[in-house]
Amino acid sequence: MAEATDGASRRLIRGMFRRQRRLVALTAGFWSMHQLCEALVPVAIGLVVDQAVGTGSTTAMAWSLLGIFGLFTALTMGWRTGLWFGTRAELEEAHELRMRVVRRVVTGRGIRTDRQTGELLSIATSDTAGAAELLELGSRVFSASIGLVVSTVVLVRIDWSLGIGLMIGVPILVLALNALGPLVERHTSAQQEALGQAAGTASDLLTGLRPLRGFGGVEEAARRYRSASRTSLKANVGAIKAGAAFVSVSTFTTGLLIAVVAALAGWFALRDRITIGELITIVGLAAFLTDPVLNLAHCVFRLATARAGAARVAEVLEAPERAGAGGTTAAAGPLALDDVHTAGLDGVSLVAGPGELVGVATSDIAAADAVTELLAGTRRPDRGAVTLGGTPLPELDVAALRRALLVEPHAVDLFGDTLRDALRTDDRQEDAALTRALTAASATELSDGGLDHELLDHGANLSGGQRQRVAVARALLADRPVMVFRDPTTAVDAVTEHAIAEGIREHRDGRATVLVTTSAPLLDRCDRVVFVDAGRVAGTGRHRDLLAVPAYADVVLR
Amino acid sequence: MTAILPVATGRATARAFGRKLRRYPLLGLLAVLASVAASVFAVLVPILLGRIVDLVAARGSTGELLGIAAWTLVAGLAAALLTGAARWLVAEWGARASADLREEVLDHALRMDSARLEAAGAGDVASRVTDDVERVTDATQLAADVFGALVTVAITFAGFATLDWRIAVAFLVVFPVYAVSLRRFLPQAERRYAVERRAVAVQTRSLLSTFTGARTVHAYGMEDRQSARVEQASRGAVDARLDATRGFLWFSNVMNYAEALGLSAVLFSGFLLVRADASTVGEVTAAALLFHRLFGPLGMLLFSFNDVQSAGAALARLVGVADLELPARAGVGRFDVRPGVAVVATGIRHHYLDGPTVLHDVSVEIPAGRSLAVVGSSGAGKTTLAAILGGVFPSTGGEVRLGGRPIADLAPDELRRLVGVVTQEVHVFAGTLADDLRLAVPDASDTDLQAALKLAGADEWVAALPDGLATRIGDGEHPLSASQAQQLALARIALVDPPVVILDEASAEAGSAGARQLDQASAALIQDRTAIVVAHRLTQAQTCDRIAVMAHGRIVEIGTPAELIAAGGAYAELWAAWHR
Q1: ipTM higher than the 0.90 cut
Q2: B-chain residues within 8 Å CB-CB of A87?
Q3: Which of A251, A518, B155, B435 maximizes the CB count within 10 A of its CB?
Q4: Residue from the list B68, B281, B536 with its beta carbon closest to the beta carbon of A53
Q5: Taking the domain B10-322, which CATH number applies?
Q6: How does this chain sit within the bilayer (chain A) (predicted)?
Q7: Cα B190 to Cα A325, B105, B176, distances in angstroms
Q8: What average pLDDT does the segment B334-361 reach?
Q9: SS3 content of chain A, % helix, strand, coil (to 5)
């Protein structure tokens, strides 16, 4: 499992660099130019001290000042331009990854994952951004290496033994620092994990805030978040200590490097192997070298977080689909359960052909759940088949299936900022059709202020009944040849329920519709009602006729 | 325009975070001391290097050279140890303060005035307690670096002064440049980053609604449409970020030229001083090297400015919630919870924020131990009335009394021991089933939990779960049906065992077959309690002692079921429709 994820995140990272190669190359190029200039600054200081400060020549000093400004112009341009391209690469790629995660979650039947909504949210936001940081880190590593190479060349030209010594010494230091990477990585991923869990807890509690307030759980909820937050703090402090240890070690190694180089160069200067100016350049360069070395070390440090993010993004992108799909193109036709066995159903057959409005009433909820999930294709029967136009659902191509069959989920989720937005599921739907659908769902009072009526976050400003009616209108508007509703009017009052039943019947005229419900007004409008009791079909017929069956009357007349 | 939660001003943010930091004075003191000591040793290194240059110029001995080199090594070692310690202490200081802050933020979010929360939307709050909290937490290590860099700059300046005060004066030329450009940059940066954070909040909201509604997107096969919505929000966040970066680039350009100016000033004044024999080449070298060493911390400050600004904006959004005024938590006296508590509402009026009035002068009395059903068409104000009677939020006018005491005078925990409300929304909290129930009564024993589940008619299916009470439920865990979730909601109230219960469409969500079990469960729950039942199923209303029919925010009829049917009014009409 861990190895598979490893491979997946490597693929993800390769893909990121491939997509943003142009911007990454520009970033690395400009930052290399910046590093080059940075490496030349101590050289310039040495030159100025040697040629101008030491000699007292005004002309030399004037040239020195001009040179410094020229050097800094190149330096700042390199950094600035690199940062611009780097930021663009990072943001574009984070956006790309975010959209891939979203597509993965919403496409087809979705993915099988044990991540909570809050965790998915954190993957789509902070982890995609974290993964995209790898692009910046790549450019940084490249340019820091250029800085190291340039310094080495300058040093070799002054004194080959020092140059060679640094060429061997610095990579050893960086490798040694790299060895600390896993320690930091472990702490960092523990920190991210704890932070994600605390965020998950927070969003879970906030989602349930209304019920929470109803039963007075606010105190306890706050206490639970505090405990999650304390766990997160502990992990955070662990990561801080690991990071601090890493900084200590890297600072010490660079300090050691500088002291040794300065002692050697001073000794060479005392024996006249090099000039004072060269000594200053060497000491300056040794001091500068800490920059790229620390930069590399810092990158190693951040690499851990970024890779952990990339791994979580890859996990979602490569997660298995919730249910497989075939390639057969769906053709509208009768929707049927054929001798289906599953939890709650013990050999049930029923069929809804074109032009039929079929009610399914069940005496227990497990059976109703089973029928809905089977028709939605999220559950496979243990025995028997669920077919559309004669083809079993799992063999059908999902996209085509969605155009032929709609199973409206019972839990209402609305999208968009306006009523029009919430109703439309594709762009060809005209306002007139929207109004017709709203009328059929008895929701016209919502469009009194026009179809641009503003909906707050999720339609949170609508009542439960209003939300259900908007969902019914949305489904009717989508106008699929075959449609299944599950308890669409539970939060609607009796009078309105009658009107909606009439509206659905008229709107669905000539098409196949299944209503899984125990609502008498809805069942009364059906051409045929299938009554499922104790997992078996206990009666089929018109609602009024079935009322003679005591078990049926007991379920629907309440 | 969507009403969004407040964002604190820069000053308020600094004050609030400063208060949190001051809670850990010892940690703070150690952090500051370690940072200063670390910088002192770090600054010693280039000064010692300058001494090497002077030693070479004066043709000193190898022994002296080795001595200075040894001191350089010692200073480097001390700087390394202290830098690590400083980083740890400063970061832990910040981490503790931000942990306190995020807890306060969630606490405030949970207790916030409902009307404001509804208007802002759960997404805005969620983005603050997840995304912004994460940004601030991540920034604690960064803050340690920034703090260290600032101390280094200050100590370096002191280092200049020990070399030659005239060079130190030359170095001062950079500060006016920094000051002027910061003055220009900061206000626009603050604005740009605030815009960026808002764009990110919009993006978070869009992502959250997509993930929670994924099933609906699947059902309609509208992945393209929904992705396009998210794409637009995400693109908005990217553009806002790029815009903020653009402003930052200008600033960093000026900063680089300030470095060039400073270095030139140091070298040029050194040049003049050496020519006048007032200073040595070694001192000028040390000064130039010192200044050069400042590029690191200065660059660090520059480079992290983006993150510091955006962490600051995130912090301001957190403080915005933490500084929210909470609804008054009046009432301290103990309230003796008697078995019978009457509910009396007089002249209740209500409107949401600036919305229209949804309740007009509603007065109703429910004697202790009796039940009242509330029926009416959608939007009649039933849910609002139920919430106000249950003290979920206060009405904008009128008064509710529980057992003779005004509801506004009750402390929150007193109120919740008196009234339990089952809301329209049903939420299964993540964790074990026992955890879910214990949200209501944290110290309930397993026996209490079993009893509450039995009352709610959930004992059988809970016993059949793979791990019983320890089964993990909630998002992504063992799935519960709508009616099972409803039964849990009833069981939580049964656990609290309040004398007054308010059931808002408690059996509505279960829809079909489970409704009967739920009806039995709610009947058991309202037994011997004062109850208000918002009923959609008229059979449920029929079992209550009295029924109130609501329309357009008013009670239009009230009486026993038999009286209302006999009266031939609105209820009789509903009843006929139901029985058609």
Answers
A1: no
A2: 241-242, 245
A3: A518
A4: B281
A5: 1.20.1560.10
A6: Multi-pass membrane protein
A7: 50, 22, 21
A8: 78
A9: 70, 10, 20
